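2024-03-11 09:14:02 INFO queue: dequeued item Tryptophan 2,3-dioxygenase, len=322
2024-03-11 09:14:02 INFO validating residues
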Amino acid sequence: MEIKPEIAERIFALEEKFKNSGQDLASYLDGLLYDRYLTYWDYLNIDTLLSLQKTLTHFPDEKIFISYHQISELYFKLIIHEQKQIIEKEAPDADFLIEKYNRLNRYFRILTDSFDVMIKGMERDQFLKFRMSLLPASGFQSAQFRMIEIYATPLENLVSCKIRDQFSEKNSLEDLYENIYWKKGGIDLETGEKTLTLRQFEKRYTARFLRIASEYKGKTLFHKYKELPDSVKNNKFLKEALRNFDANVNVNWPLMHMGAAYRYLNKDKETIAATGGTNWKEFLPPSFQRNSFFPYLWSEKELENWGKEWVNHMFNTEKENC
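2024-03-11 09:14:37 INFO prediction written
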């Protein structure tokens, strides 16, 4: 059989590649001969993926709840994947950064838009029953979302807004982490003690969070942008992409959670506690937290009114629907 020139060229290139690495091309070719053809279901581990939606109750809508949260965690993984590429890229140009931030915004837009699956896609009575089997687990315990925040901005920007002005980059990471905003959401309002949800979360992830914060200290997305040359930094499309990312994560995403909480946990002037004991009315509103990854990209007035228009719209809409 005659070997086509383009095939021979590739064989010679492969032989050179493996020779340089001390490997034997013939062994790799044998492997190709013995290997079976790859299938879609094997490549994506479909059987394993579809076996992970294990419900704890007999209520059908619990499968929706589990599936949606698992999908969200997969998107969080993709978001972290893009964040790391931005951070690790040497001297990125505007086109590279705009493309990456557009990806980040696309992921969060999909997550936000798809939250209708949670808000409108489950029966309230079913949810209020099957949720009791989830205690004390809570979406509050999404470690990947906390990692997204740590990769995005220094810990001093994540300190609870009521005391944020008392902290700076000069504080230790441990001190900043101890005062991070989301811990306030895991405090029992009656006793002032940490909820079991928060204690479990801290025990499982504190060491990892601090390791990431230490490894990326001075290298977050916040710092990456500030270190750009003015010719890149002043690109209006890049600024817009960063502002959109900030608003998507710190305004739009928590607001969608508020919408779900009001639908399922707020009825006839009665507020039902979240599964993990999170004081969600104090924790979720972006205007209460005023978290911003890139505060230098917003005016003082914008930061002062952070999320208020969105929150007022949400509250008014919920009142009309009640």
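2024-03-11 09:14:37 INFO annotate: Residues 313-322 have pLDDT under 50 and may be disordered.
2024-03-11 09:14:38 INFO item closed
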